Amino acid sequence: MDRLTNTIRPYAWGSTTAIAELTGAEPTGEPQAEMWMGAHPGAPSRTERGPLNEVIDEDPARELGPRAVAKFGPRLPFLLKILAAGAPLSLQVHPNLEEAKEGYDDEERRGVPVDAPHRNYKDANHKPELICALTPFDGLCGFRAPAEAADLLAGLGVDSLKPYVDLLHAKPEEAALREVLTAVLTADPDDMAQTVTEAAAAAERIGGDYAPYAAVARHYPGDPGVIAAMLLNYVQLQPGEAMFLGAGVPHAYIQGLGVEIMANSDNVLRCGLTPKHVDVPELLRVVRFEASDPGVLRPEASADGEEVYETPIDEFRLSRFVLPAGGAAHDLTAGTPQVLLCTAGTVRAGDLALTPGQSAFVPAGEKVEVSGTGTVFRATVVA
Fold first, then answer.
1. Which of 158, 168, 153 shows the shortest CA–CA distance to 197?
2. Which residue from 28, 106, 265, 314 has the highest number of Cβ atoms inside 10 Å of its Cβ?
3. What is the pLDDT of residue 302?
4. Short-list 267, 258, 359, 335, CA closest to 45
5. pLDDT of residue 371
6. With a cut of 50, which residues of the chain have pLDDT below it?
7. What is the DSSP letter of 251?
8. Which of helix, strand or coil describes residue 182?
9. Of these residues, 144, 270, 320, 378, which one is catalytic?
10. Is the dihedral of CA 240, 241, 246, 250 positive or negative?
11. 110 catalytic, yes or no?
């Protein structure tokens, strides 16, 4: 078993205090957005044996187990993070596996450098995600029903939004959502900036259901993503609640601290709330234009005390144990690789004591028990 030393990514939207408060460290004064736990080559966790990706490369079958290697190849198929949003992230979608392979192969054929700012597909993998709140957590996930989105836009009383309201009322669901999002993202930039400015002022004045979008507009004045965001469901997660984000579902995180797990991919197509590249034709190819319930997940407890967040994919499986004082130890020995993350109290994993923000990698088949008083998240795969 390996104690992990993890990289904190200083993205501009990160909180300056949340990760420091969790870990008991002194704030640096700089944004701290994500702590990465895993073997992603962009920021692999470090162990006493070396970077985790190199440790796995030396003997994938031993570290990952034969079942995981047979199913996912010789790489850790998930990336675990602590995510701390102090400002809204970009409004985005992720491709499914077939779309990712097609897009990656196309950009490879066209010779688009993998680090080019206009490159859409950094790899040929899909990127389903799960976010579990550690604090109250606000986000956007999936399209509202067109009539609900129309009512929200109409309530702002902004004349330049009326054509979108009319489209949402007049068209069938798929066509309505597609045409309005396309119109918002392809509108004249100056005209759209003025529309967003007027909409943001109205949202500030009205408050209530409009408050989240007013907050988004304060961070991204004039950005068409502010209007696109109003087409989506607003979600508030309480600690312990989670949200699964599948392929083609537009989403954004607004604020809060959470544990995030995803397939090991970096493929993102952006709709707005970002200065980065927005490829509207490719985005429209990937987005699923259907209204959906954001589907807040609560963990399902098993007889041994493990609380599992059920998802429809196999690249990751996230669960947690809330360990009471004086409780029995839990045997987590498994034939698949695991990352264990403490988020509260003090937890013992094998010979390692973990405090909030500390984590460990458990190779497949390695015997491990967890005990103590606190909360530990367990990330593994279904194989």
1. 158
2. 265
3. 87
4. 359
5. 96
6. none
7. E
8. helix
9. 270
10. negative
11. no
For residue 299, which phi and psi values (nearest 5 degrees)? -70, 145
Pairwise CA distance, residues 341 & 320, whole Å: 9
H or E segment and range at residue 237: strand 232-237
pLDDT for 287-335, tens place per residue?
A: 999 999 888 999 998 888 999 999 999 999 999 999 999 888 999 999 9
CA distance 56 to 39: 8
State the pLDDT at residue 274.
87
How far apart are alpha carbons 361 and 4 in whole angstroms? 7
Report angle CA 125, 81, 122 to the nearest 5 degrees: 25
Are the beta carbons of 158 and 245 closer than 8 angstroms?
no
Give the integer Cα–Cα distance in Å for 315 and 39. Answer: 14
Its pTM stands at: 0.94
SS3 138: strand
pLDDT at 306: 95
Q: How far is CA 285 from CA 113, 288, 322, in A?
A: 22, 8, 42
Q: Which DSSP string do the residues of 213-251 spell out, in sequence order? A: HHHHHHHSTT-THHHHHTTEEEEEEPTT-EEEE-TT--E
Owner of token pair 């469901």: 233
Please answer whether residues 101 and 124 qualify as being in contact, where contact means their C-beta atoms are separated by less than 8 angstroms.
yes
Residue 275: the pLDDT is 85
State residue 376's pLDDT score.
98
Give the separation between CA 262 and CA 128, rounded to whole angstroms: 6
Q: What is the DSSP letter of 210?
A: G
* Three-class HEC string of 288-331: CCCECCCCEECCEECCCCCEEECCCCCCCEEEEEEECCCCCCEE
Residue 69 is given by DSSP the state H
> Two tokens at 378?
């367990």
Rg (CA), the chain: 22
CB atoms inside a 10 Å sphere around CB 173? 15
**For residue 209, which of 250, 268, 148 has the smallest C-alpha distance?**
148
- Measured in degrees and rounded to the nearest 5, phi and psi for residue 171 equal -100, 155
- The β-bridge partners of 330 are 370
- For residue 118, how many other CB atoms are within 10 A of its CB? 11
Q: Which of 275, 244, 278 is nearest to 262 (CA)?
A: 244
